Amino acid sequence: MEGRKRIVGWGVLALWVIVLALAAPLAGKLGDVQRDRAVDYLPASADSTQVANIMEQMPGGGSTDLVLVYHRDGGLTAADKATAAREVGQVAAAHPLASPPRAVPSEDGTTLLYAVSSTEPGQDEVARDAFVRDVRATVSGEVGGPGALATDAGEVYNSLDGPLLYTTVAVVAILLIVIYRSPFLWLVPLAVAGVADFLSMAVTYALHQGFGISVSGQSTGVMTILVFGAGTDYALLLVSRYREELRRVPRPYDAMAAALRGCGPAVLASSGTVALGMLCLLAADMNSSRGMGPTAAVGVLCALIAMMTLLPALLVVLGRRVFWPLIPAYGSAPKAARRSLFAAMGSSAGRRPLAVLLAGAAALAALALGALNLPGALKQEDTFSSTPEAVAAMRTLAAAYPEMGTQPVTVVAPTGEVPGALRTALATDGVAKAERGRSADGWTEISVIAAHPPQSAAETATIEALRTSLGDGVYVGGPSAEQLDMADTSARDRNIVVPLVIVVVLIVLIVLLRSLVAPLILIAAVVAVWGAALGIGGLLFEGLFGFGGTDPGLALLSFVFLVALGVDYGIFLMHRMREECLTGAEPGAAALTALRTTGGVIASAGLVLAATFAVLVNMPMVQLAELGFVIAVGVLLDTFLVRTYLVTSASVLLGRKVWWPGPLAKKPVPTAGPGSEREPVRV
Fold first, then answer.
1. Which residue from 87, 93, 391, 664 could staple onto 139, CB 3.0 to 4.6 Å apart?
2. Residue 254: beta bridge partners?
3. Is the CB of residue 190 less than 8 Å from the CB of residue 172?
């Protein structure tokens, strides 16, 4: 019998080998469909998105707009100007340009600006990057503008994949070694997480091909973090229960079966809740947010499948020896000291539950006030934590030309309406000049130069005035308009997605826990954690990290992740509480027992998840760094304050009312017998 059971384990491993062989061709193609163009991040229905889509259909596709900047602090010399003219002439000779570049000197004589626009690269990002690199190799000045900024952003995103994966693996490996205190055991869940990441890449590529979901560097980076973070959490829960069962059951296969029956329902419920929460992002209008929803859900579900099938098979095949040197012997008892910390935490929450609850709630509310100190909207030049050449050029231009805009606002109008649109644009307050550009398929572009610096309040007012005066059917876009649309759409998405996430997660919790009060406690707790984490970000982003602004999508994305992942841990705790109550324990005692028995593994899982998201803080994109910081801080608050003290103290205070209106709230359930808390429980 035992031999047949081991064969089952080997059969599962063989099945996974087949799955990986089928997934390999798809996973290898994911990088080919990853896109980080403006339209991959912009709101789907915004003016700026319509402009970008129409411009791509123009002859040669979307233009690549550059600004060549020649600067000398003491003033440009005649030789400097001659060099600039010669080099710009070489660029014009080597590449077809929309119009001959003209020098625009600054009033103080320190800077020359040349606007260069070419349709040669078209929609091909590789051709665009080659064009930008060739121009940079030709000219001695700085090369900026939207095209150069897109190239620099693409290089940053392309550079994320390797460092992000390696750093995440290293962080998880170190934590698993510390948690397991074994030279071998940590390798098993880490390898399974790597397999899950590989599978998620293949599934994401298939979804892109089948349903057209957008794939960006941001979404794939977050997917990798989720696979390793959430997957390792599921592994910690399973291995902890498996170790417990190995002391009760002589054979590894039977111990694993009992472990899967014991923690499987909670893991399935929690991962399903996370996936559903992520899929709520499909209701967002922002392309980047909507694309992140399914890729994040794929990461969580692939992690679940791998940790619930491949990991058990590997552990069963390897047997007890994988735990060396702390092998759980059959019939042995775990050391009591390992749970003393969480026993003490539970005791403090049980002795003075009201004081603990009020103090914790007050602390979270005070931290949430820091959100009022969040810096303003993130500007394009502040997107990078380093300073690429395109950003340096933008800063040089802002200092040398404070009286004028240095990047165009692009207007597209039906060709027959262009004369009127030009007159209206020129008559709009804040417009310095407007010129007609290319035409195709009934549309014509108009390049508008504002009289104010890019992304200033005055330029924003000009863009809004243009949209009002030009009316419907004429679209106003360009880099500054894109930033404006992102901020407006992020606010709209928050108003739709946040309530949707709360409703979806609440319904799942009600069905899962058969209670209304317990789900409301968990939802209130994770919302409070989100507010406190954002508040800590507001206190530290500008002063400590030097971030020049806040990404418009930070509040929405951090809310979705923290609510989904925070409820994840709440399910683990409440599931064990329910097990205890089903054996006849009073809810107060059940809450303390659940904390004592699951506190260690939840703390370990929280540390791993927080550490994986903290990896993003070191990435060179401010959006990712801010998102990683807020989620990491929120997970730590949830793990060590909310889950440990506030939820436990609230459960002690409410008693059986925590399960209202379910059957556990009405009358005690007779004890099923010794050891019944380890029997399978239907959730």
1. 87
2. none
3. yes
Most confidently modeled of 2-11, 190-199, 254-263, 537-546?
Answer: 190-199
Higher pLDDT, 56 or 419: 419
Query: What phi and psi values does residue 384 have, to the nearest 5 degrees?
Result: -100, 140
Residue 161: its H or E element: helix 146-180
Band (683; pLDDT cuts 50, 70, 90): very low
**Amino acid of residue 53:** N
CA of 369: how far to CAs of 363, 540, 547, 636, 639, in Å? 10, 13, 19, 18, 21
Closest CA to 48 of 471, 484, 491: 484
Note if the pTM is more than 0.70. yes
How far is it, in rounded angstroms, from Cα 514 to Cα 653?
19
Q: What is the pLDDT of residues 163-185, one digit of tens each?
A: 777 888 888 888 888 888 888 89
Q: How far apart are CA 307 and CA 236, in angstroms?
A: 10
Cα end-to-end span (Å), the chain = 30
The residue type found at 484 is: L
Distances (CA, A) of 332 to 460, 504, 652, 655: 70, 43, 32, 34
Inter-residue contact 451 to 425 (CB < 8 Å): no
Sheet (strand 111-118) strand order:
103-105, 111-118, 64-71, 142-144
**Full strand arrangement of the beta sheet holding 431-440:** 431-440, 443-450, 409-414, 475-477
Quick one: pLDDT band at residue 215, thresholds 50, 70, 90?
Answer: confident
Distance, in Å, from the CA atom of 598 to the CA atom of 572, rounded to the nearest integer, reads: 8
DSSP single-letter state for residue 411 = E
Chain center to CA of 383: 16
Please give the angle made by the CA atoms of 219, 225 and 227, to the nearest 5 degrees: 100
Q: Going by C-beta distance under 8 Å and a sequence separation of 6 or more, which residues neighbour residue 11?
A: none
Q: Shortest CA distance to 679 belongs to which of 160, 310, 249, 44?
A: 249
Report the alpha-carbon distance of residue 78 to residue 98 in Å, rounded: 27
DSSP-based three-state secondary structure for 475: strand
Residues whose CB falls within 8 Å of the CB of residue 354, separated by 6 or more in sequence, listed in order = 649, 653
| Alpha carbon separation from 24 to 30, 75, 211, 452 (Å, rounded) | 11, 58, 20, 52
**Helix/strand/coil percent split, the chain, to 5:** 70, 10, 25
Pairing of strands 443-450, 409-414: antiparallel
DSSP annotation of 616 reads G
Task: Read off the tokens for 359.
Answer: 């103090």
Task: Kindly report, residue by residue over 256-290, the tens digit of the pLDDT.
Answer: 999 998 888 878 888 888 899 999 999 999 888 88
d(Cα 375, Cα 522) in Å, to the nearest integer? 30
Amino acid at the residue 225: I
The token pair at 442 is: 């009934």
Question: How far apart (Å, rounded) are the C-alpha atoms in residues 436 and 448?
Answer: 9
Interstrand relation of 64-71 and 111-118 (parallel, antiparallel or unpaired): antiparallel
Residue 669 has pLDDT above 60, yes or no: no
Q: Evaluate if residue 61 carries a pLDDT over 60.
A: no
Q: What is the pLDDT of residue 500?
A: 95
pLDDT at 3: 55
Q: Of the ranges 143-157, 231-245, 353-367, 434-448, which one carries the lowest mean pLDDT score?
A: 143-157
